[in-house]
Write a structure and sequence with these properties.
The structure holds two protein chains of two kinds. By secondary structure, chain A is mainly alpha-helical. Chain A is 72% helix and 0% strand. Chain B has one domain (13-148): 3-Layer(aba) Sandwich (Rossmann fold). In chain B, 39% of the residues lie in helices and 13% in strands. Chain B is built from five helices and five strands, in the order H-E-H-E-E-H-E-H-E-H. Chain B has a five-stranded parallel β-sheet, with helices on both faces. Classes of the chains: A mainly alpha, B alpha/beta.
Chain lengths: 303, 156
Amino acid sequence: MNVSGLIHFFLFPGLLFAIPAAWLYVWGERKAVALMQRRIGPPLLQPFYDFVKLIGKRTPSRHGIEADLLRLWPALSVLSMIGAIAMLPVFPGGRGFSGDAVLLVALLELPSICFILAGFTSGSIYGEIGAIREAVLSVANNVVFLLSIVTIAVTERTFRLADIAGGSWNPGHWIGVFGILLCIPAKLRLNPFSTSSAEQEIYSGPLTEYAGAALAMWELAHGLEWVALTGFVATLVLPATGPWWFHAVSFVAVSFAEVLLLSTIAAATARFTLQRAIKFYWQWAGILAILVVSSAIYMGYRW
Amino acid sequence: MNLFKRLMNKCRRKSPFLFHLNTGSCNGCDIELITCLSPRYDVEQLGIHLEGSPRHADILCITGPVTRTTLEAVKTVYSQVCEPKAVVALGSCPASCNVFAGSPVIAGPLSKHIPVDVYVPGCPPHPDAIIDAIARAAEILAERGVSAKTKGEPQK
């Protein structure tokens, strides 16, 4: 591994940047929702306070394989998200981890799988219902998500992240970005796709039995998911030229703008039923995605 | 007190998560508690958050005079909240059973069954009083975290 790879993993956009950014984005989400409801909202450091407080809670002691698994799922989510964030091609030129979009998709999918497994491991009925909902929603939105990435890959004729990054003038690229943006609310379990962790309905879904440090890890993983998904879109839309500081600043600015946009949509919508969410992804977005992919492949052959 | 403990204290004061339990209340106090989350009072400014699961909560907000059918639920939910924890009794019912005192179906007052930290009198109490009580409970939470740690109390 080269030096710039280490910098990518530990400094920017990896560990040192990603964790404070996760808290900042979660704050941005809560603040945007509060402002939409004409409230003042939480202070800037609120996600940090919540994290430290949860670390300090004394949790009931569990034993056996179930206890280890319940600790493993949030840790795995956090690690996979930090890996995904470190892979993002923030700086053009392919330095750092020269990853592949397929690996990124796999890493982005891990928290959702861990979330489902956590629900089933917890043994709580609410956890199981939440896990089933998350599994169904994941199947629904991943069709569109994968087809969007395939659309971008076909228009750029590569799966290498460093090469598909950077806004191009090809319409296929932008339709792919739009498709990814459509899937982010479901991946982040935001309104209107928040059925899997529907509070006041199934308590907290798969996280009902979690407490203390493990719950803090889940909160952190959720924030890191924000950073990874909005950052992925940011790398796809930003231009590939310019000095390094411009890339760093615009990466953060565009990601944060996406956070505000998605939170505003979340605040303005009500929760879909599971059936309606599937219909949204498979019927409308799915048909659109298939049309776009086929036209992108057709255009790709013609060039 | 070292730096880490001071930070932990501050965070406990700044982020109390609530779990709301109705033990046979007439809904008057429940409505007043929900009012605190509304734009007019906006308790999220103080880091207060209403949680769906008692496992996530720090402060248990109990309304109602504790009927016989809800007594076991009260004890179970109280044991599910992780230490350090605090209990806020909202309204006159959990404090004194109010107009239901003497009824054969009432097992209250609440303090007979679980320790209560803050009482909020009123039928129903004003949202300002509820916010004040939760802020006091958060202070108690921070103190309790420190004292329990120095004494080395068991986990349960």
